[in-house]
């Protein structure tokens, strides 16, 4: 692992030097050689029409859990004669479908949909279809043993939020899905674990949101706070409560951004193990190489990033954080603290929106982890 770390820092340093050499004080419209070539490539991938525009991207992603994955996604944006909403959070109607297949047989289809209405309603939904082999490490502290199984996921979730004021939203959340677990190997995942073979779940609840961010995809200033309570039924009766606080502030210039997140999630009732709060993955503590290693009825985490934008489409981040999972609020102990720190590289995919491809390398009190994916962690 030491040699891998050294190689990563050499590559990362080279990328920073390259980005600085080609940096300009202007944004993605600068005309330096590298950026001009990139813009020509991006124009080939974009199809503009009077009523809509479509940008296609081949994707290469990576996580230790899934391996390397090849795929593609499209950003479909409807062109409206004038905005249907005067809110500064308005975005045109957008549909983003994607598909990928990995070296570890992860097949993933996702589709995001966003819509702002004339009456200041925000409608967001996401469809997930996954077929993947997974590892179960137990509930609570990771066990020395594990079970391997195949999981098929079919789900749709989202929210309907009404803007009460420029920065205040209230509305409903929903989450409906069917999970099928099969082909078990190992004895750790058995019929004593709730949801071991899957089932139907359906939930709905209330969300309250405060949002003063100046940009949804890549904020430079503002706060984001969300509080939600969900009640579930069908095959399982349980509830999920979550508080999510994020803070963003630029330093010296808009190219330097400090970002922080504090997150707490609680699950009550008889939740299936795959709906319990998770601590790892590409968006949470990025030193945890498998998102199923730390699952329990409660979790908290605190993480921060320094984000640096260079000229054109390039950028970099340094991040750190810590968190824990536990069966109840009084069971969080310092000895069980999981921490992480790392570096990342960014490439901006869209000309008019700050949607980034990211490469993150996270380290901590466990194996190092690498993530290559799209969108910021928070």
Give a structural overview.
The protein has helices at 2-21, 33-44, and strands at 46-48, 52-63, 67-78, 94-102, 107-116, 121-136, 147-165, 168-185, 198-211, 222-234, 238-251, 253-269, 298-309, 314-326, 338-348, 356-364, 366-374. It is mainly beta and 378 residues long. It has a 16-stranded antiparallel β-barrel with strand order 2-3-4-5-6-7-8-9-10-11-12-13-14-15-16-17. Strand 2 (52-63) and strand 3 (67-78) form a beta hairpin. The chain is globular and about 55 Å long. Mean pLDDT is 84; it is low at 1-29.
Q: Average pLDDT across residues? A: 84
Q: Please compute the radius of gyration using only Cα atoms.
A: 21 Å
Q: Can you write the helix and strand succession as a string?
A: HHEEEEEEEEEEEEEEEEE
Q: How much strand content do the residues show?
A: over 45%
The helix content, as a percent range, equals under 10%
**Structural class label:** mainly beta
Report the biggest beta sheet as strand number plus sense, adding barrel if it closes: 16 strands, antiparallel, barrel
Question: Which strand order spans the largest sheet, edge to edge or round the barrel?
Answer: 2-3-4-5-6-7-8-9-10-11-12-13-14-15-16-17
Overall number of strands: 17
Global outline: globular
CA distance, first residue to last residue: 28 Å
Which runs of at least 5 residues are low in confidence (pLDDT < 50)? Answer: 1-29
Count of runs of 4 or more consecutive helical residues: 2
């Amino acid at each position: 692992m030491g040699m891998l770390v050294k190689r990563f820092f050499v590559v990362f340093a080279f990328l920073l030097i390259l980005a600085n050499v080609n940096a300009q004080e202007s944004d993605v419209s600068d005309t330096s050689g590298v950026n001009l070539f990139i813009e020509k490539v991006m124009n080939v991938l974009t199809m503009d029409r009077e009523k809509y525009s479509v940008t296609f991207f081949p994707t290469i992603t990576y996580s230790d859990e899934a391996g390397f994955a090849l795929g593609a996604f499209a950003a479909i944006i409807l062109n409206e004669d004038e905005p249907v909403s005067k809110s500064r959070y308005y975005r045109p109607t957008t549909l983003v479908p994607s598909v990928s297949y990995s070296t570890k047989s992860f097949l993933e289809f996702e589709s995001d949909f966003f819509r702002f209405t004339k009456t200041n309603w925000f409608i967001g939904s996401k469809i997930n279809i996954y077929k993947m082999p997974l590892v179960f490490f137990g509930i609570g502290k990771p066990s020395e043993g594990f079970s391997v199984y195949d999981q098929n996921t079919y789900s749709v979730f989202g929210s309907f939020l009404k803007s009460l004021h420029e920065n205040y939203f209230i509305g409903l959340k929903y989450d409906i899905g069917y999970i099928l677990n099969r082909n078990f190997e190992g004895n750790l995942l058995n019929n004593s674990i709730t949801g071991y073979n899957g089932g139907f779940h359906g939930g709905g609840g209330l969300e309250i949101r405060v949002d003063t961010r100046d940009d949804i995809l890549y904020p430079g200033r503002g706060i984001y706070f969300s509080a939600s309570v969900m009640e579930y039924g069908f095959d399982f009766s349980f509830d999920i409560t979550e508080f999510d606080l994020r803070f963003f502030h630029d330093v010296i210039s808009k190219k330097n951004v400090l970002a922080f997140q504090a997150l707490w999630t609680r699950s009550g009732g008889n939740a299936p193990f795959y709906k319990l709060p998770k601590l790892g993955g590409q968006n949470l503590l990025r030193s945890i190489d498998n998102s199923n290693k730390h699952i329990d009825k409660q979790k908290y985490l605190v993480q921060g990033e320094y984000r640096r934008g260079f000229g054109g489409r390039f950028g970099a981040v340094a991040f750190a954080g810590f968190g824990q999972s536990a069966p109840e609020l009084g069971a969080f102990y310092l000895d069980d603290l999981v921490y992480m720190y790392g570096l990342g590289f960014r490439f901006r995919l869209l000309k008019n929106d700050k949607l980034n491809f990211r490469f993150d390398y996270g380290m901590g009190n466990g194996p190092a982890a690498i993530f290559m994916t799209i969108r910021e962690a928070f």
